[in-house]
Amino acid sequence: SDIRRTLLEMFTNADGDYVSGQKISDLLGCSRTAVWKHIEELRKDGYELEAVRKKGYRIVGKPNKVSSNELLLGLQTTKIGQYIHYEESVHSTQKIAHRIAQEGAKEGTVVVAEEQTAGRGRLDRAWYSPKYTGAWMSIILRPSIPPQQAPQLTLLSAVAVVQAIQEVTNLSPDIKWPNDVLLNGKKLVGILTEMQADFDRIHSVIIGIGINVNQQETDFNEQIKHIATSLRIEKGEEINRAALMQAFFLKLETLYEEYLKNGFGLIKVLWETYAISIGKRIIARTMTANIEGFAKGITDEGVLLIEDDEGVIHRIHSADIELSAKK
Ligand code: BTX
Predict the structure, then answer these.
(1) How many A from CA of 240 to the centre of ligand 1?
(2) CATH of 68-274, one of 3.30.930.10, 1.10.760.10, 3.40.1110.10, 3.90.550.10
(3) What are phi and psi of 253, to 5 degrees?
(4) Does 277 sit in the ligand 1 pocket, CB within 6 Å?
(5) Is 230's C-beta closer than 6 angstroms to any atom of ligand 1?
C-alpha cells in the first residue's frame, strides 16, 4: 500500500537511525496505534524493525525478497514496474500475466514471483526457477505496432537486460540470437515473448524474463548444470535482486520509448554490438532443417540472415543456433 511505501521510504532515508513514533504518525496523518499496525504488517513481510522506548523505530534488516515494497522503493520509471503483481510461488508468471492482461491490466504491469513451479521456455521447454534465487517476471506491454513486429521486442528486451546487468554487476553478457543471454558461453537469462493479438492488432505483448541471479553451482540440476550459470557464480558475490530488476525496468522503459518514437533502428545497432553470433559461421537448427553458413546480421524485423556456401541467403524466423566448428 501507499502507506507502507511511505513508511519504508522514511526508514530508508533515516539510514539506520530511529524515527520516532510521533514523527511517523504526524507524517502519515494517522494515530500511533495505526502506525504500530503498519509496522506489524511490515514485520510480517520480513522486515526487521527494532522498537525502542522514547526513540522510536528503526530498520535493521530487509527481507531477501522481490516483493512490491522492495521493487517500488526508489523505482525511477514512470511506467514499467509501477504496477507489481507479486506472488511467493506460482506455476508460471506468464500464465498470470496473460490472465490479468485480458482483464485489462495497465501497460507496464509486472508479474513477479519468488519461485515458479512450472516456468516455461520456448517450444514447451521448461524453465527452472528455484525460490529466492532469480528474477522471474512477466511484463505487460501494449504497443501500437503490427503483430509481425512483436519479435523486435524480444531483441529490445535482451538489450535492456544486458545493459542492466552491466550497470549493476559490471559483467558483460553476450546475446545469442534470438533470445539467449550468455556469460562465458553459459545461459544466464531466458526471454520468452508471447502476445495476445488479432490478425492486425496487438492487445498485449507479454515479455517473460528469467535471470539466474543468486544460484550456486549446486542449485542447478544435472540437466542444466553444464549449460547454465548465474550472476553470483560469475561475480563471486550475492547480487541484490530488487536493485537489478529496478535497473532492468528503467533500461526497458528507456529503450521502449525510443522504439515507439523512432522505430527499431537504434535498438538493432545496440543489439548487434552485444550479439556474439553475427559475423561468424553458425548452424541454425530450425523445425525443418539445419542451415549452416555465415551470419550476416538481422533484418529490421529481427529475422536472422544466413548466407550458405552457395551464396544463398536464408531468412531464419525461429531456430536454435550454435557456432560452427568449421572455419
Ligand atoms: P528456451 O526454450 O530458450 O530455454 C529453455 C532451455 O534452457 C531448457 O530446455 C533448459 O535446457 C535450459 N534451462 C532451463 N532452465 C534454465 C535456467 N534457469 N538457466 C539456464 N538454462 C535453463 C528461454 O527458453 C525462455 C525462458 C523464459 C523464462 C521466463 S521466467 C518468467 C516467465 N515465466 C515463465 O514461465 N517463463 C518466463
Answers:
(1) 21
(2) 3.30.930.10
(3) -60, -45
(4) no
(5) no
ipTM greater than cut 0.90: yes
Give the pLDDT score at 78: 97
Ligand 1 contacts CB of residue 122 (under 6 A): yes
**322 pLDDT exceeds 90?**
no
pLDDT, tens digit, 9 for 90 and up, residues 182-225 = 999 999 999 999 999 998 899 999 999 999 999 999 999 999 99
pLDDT of res. 181: 96
Residue spans of the domains in the chain: they are 2-61, 68-274, 281-323
215 in ligand 1 pocket by Cβ < 6 Å?
A: no
| 139, three cell numbers | 511484463
Q: What's the Cα-to-Cα distance from 141 to each of 193, 228, 256, rounded to whole Å?
A: 11, 28, 9
The helix/strand/coil state of 191 is strand
C-alpha to C-alpha distance for 212 and 62, rounded to whole angstroms:
21
Q: Which of 127, 154, 248 to mutate to test the pocket of ligand 1 (most atoms within 8 A of CB)?
A: 127
What confidence tens digit (pLDDT) does each residue in 228-270 have? 999 999 999 999 999 999 999 999 999 999 999 999 999 999 9
- Nearest CA residue ID for atom 14, ligand 1: 127
Determine if ligand 1 sits within 6 Å of the CB of residue 214. no
- Residue 107: predicted pLDDT: 98
CATH no. for 2-61: 1.10.10.10
The CA distance from 112 to 323, in Å, is 34
- pLDDT greater than 70 at residue 327: no
Cα Rg, the chain, nearest whole Å:
22
- Pocket lining: 173 vs ligand 1, CB cutoff 6 Å: no
